[in-house]
Amino acid sequence: MDFKTCLIVDDSRIIRKVARRIVEGLGYEVDEAADGAEALAYCSGVMPDVLLIDWNMPVMDGLTFLRRLRASPGGEVPKVLFCTIETRPERIAEALAAGADDYVMKPFDGEILQSKLMEVGAIAA
């Protein structure tokens, strides 16, 4: 399966910009959303292949977004990586239980992101 599109969901413009550069370098077409509500609206129109989601955002946080995404039509399909500064195991377990495929600790670099995307099968090894 050929993954092509990625939605980066983060309230930090700088983090979106850094993530965009990395993900585009891996051959994705990238769109951005500043919060979960914006991301949900986007996904109801076009479901991306991969989502990178921040945890703490205004309007709708990453966890709420993820639960709503997974409950929506076609919402089980995308690979979802949580990008977070959250290190507590119980919080990470909560994200995985909500439907995240994996998580990436911030700050991340291209190598880390690429290996995580390979692990979830979003890019070929």
Please give a structural write-up.
- The longest helix has 13 residues, at 13-25.
- The chain has 125 residues and is α/β, with parallel strands linked by helices.
- Helix 2 (36-45) packs parallel to helix 3 (62-71).
- The protein has a five-stranded parallel β-sheet with strand order 2-1-3-4-5, with helices on both faces.
- It is 42% helix and 20% strand.
- The chain has one domain: Response regulator (Rossmann fold, 3-Layer(aba) Sandwich).
- Beta fraction: 15-25%
- Percent of residues in helices comes to 40-55%
Radius of gyration over C-alpha positions, nearest whole angstrom? 13 Å
CATH homologous superfamily placement:
Response regulator
CATH architecture heading = 3-Layer(aba) Sandwich
Count the helices. How many?
5
Oligomerization status of the protein chains? single chain
Main sheet overview: 5 strands, parallel
How far is it from the N-terminal to the C-terminal residue, by CA? 13 Å
Kindly identify the CATH topology.
Rossmann fold
The tally of structural domains comes to 1
What is the approximate shape? globular
Unreliably modeled segments: none
Helical/strand content category: alpha/beta
Strand element count: 5
Strand order of the largest sheet: 2-1-3-4-5
Instruction: Calculate the mean pLDDT score and round it.
Output: 93
